[in-house]
Design goal:
By secondary structure, this protein is mostly helical. It has one domain. Helix 1 runs antiparallel to helix 7, helix 3 runs antiparallel to helix 4 and helix 4 runs antiparallel to helix 5. The longest helix is centred in the middle third of the chain and has 29 residues. The C terminus is likely disordered. This is CWH43-like N-terminal domain-containing protein. It is found in: Endomembrane system.
Length: 247
């Protein structure tokens, strides 16, 4: 029986701990009576705000946790994007798809740092730019990766991984459109629920990379000055896939 690579746990742990961190922020904000619980109805006369993720992480102590969660998620998310790029690099016939996907996720991760470090009450314009980058480019990344998954068909698992990813991409897109539509109609409680659903679907999507990562391992090769230089991407590509005689 073929062993699974420990790298498969990286996407799963990323999704789990990022989601857990955001829910910790939510419960802190609810406990401090900063936001209305998602299960309740929002009343304009109340002093509490709608339970948007940004509002939940807007004031300390929740804002401290929120910044840490978003910064860590952005860093690990970028690492996932790089590993996925290197995994697909030798097999994608249209490199611009792979490069574009990496750029989209990288910018989405940068947007996450803007969301986490510039709270809504401190710099609303920059915060909203970060939100647009995260949601918009994150959604683009999902669709591109879904297409690439079916096209490349790693280990003949293209359909097994691709179909759920297309469904999750559709769910992310639907939640994003619903979120902006409900925001425009000032239906804040429903918009907040759509936003939370959007983020959970997106994290679930990134967690599905465990399907392909379980077949691969990644190493950084350090060579002596006397040896010919070896680029990081070449190092990853050369050692990325398990060979049958190693199992």
């Amino acid at each position: 029986m073929r062993k699974c690579s420990p790298w498969m746990f990286l996407p799963v742990m990323f999704s789990f701990f990022t989601a857990a961190g955001l829910w910790v922020v939510y419960f802190i904000a609810v406990e401090d009576e900063k936001i209305t619980p998602l299960s309740s109805e929002y009343k304009r006369s109340e002093s509490k705000s709608p339970p948007y993720i940004s509002i939940a992480g807007n004031a300390p102590p929740a804002s401290c946790v929120f910044s840490q969660v978003m910064n860590m998620a952005a860093f690990v998310g970028f690492i996932l994007g790089v590993l996925r790029y290197l995994q697909l690099k030798p097999r994608v016939h249209k490199p611009w798809l792979n490069i574009g996907s990496l750029v989209a996720l990288s910018l989405a991760c940068f947007g996450m740092t803007l969301v986490g470090n510039f709270q809504l009450s401190n710099d609303e314009e920059l915060h909203n730019i970060g939100t647009s980058m995260t949601f918009g480019l994150g959604t683009l990344f999902c669709w591109v990766q879904s297409f690439v998954t079916l096209k490349v068909n790693l280990r003949n698992e293209g359909r097994r991984a691709g179909i759920p990813r297309f469904l999750l991409s559709g769910a992310v897109t639907s939640c994003m459109l619903l979120y902006f539509a409900l925001m425009a109609q000032r239906l804040h409680m429903h918009a907040a629920r759509a936003q939370w659903a959007l983020v959970m679907f997106f994290l679930t999507y990134l967690g599905t990379f465990a399907i392909e990562f379980r077949h691969y391992h990644f190493e950084i090769v350090c060579s002596d000055d006397q040896d010919p230089p070896l680029s990081l991407s070449e190092s990853f590509s050369e050692v990325s896939e398990y060979q049958s005689d190693q199992l």
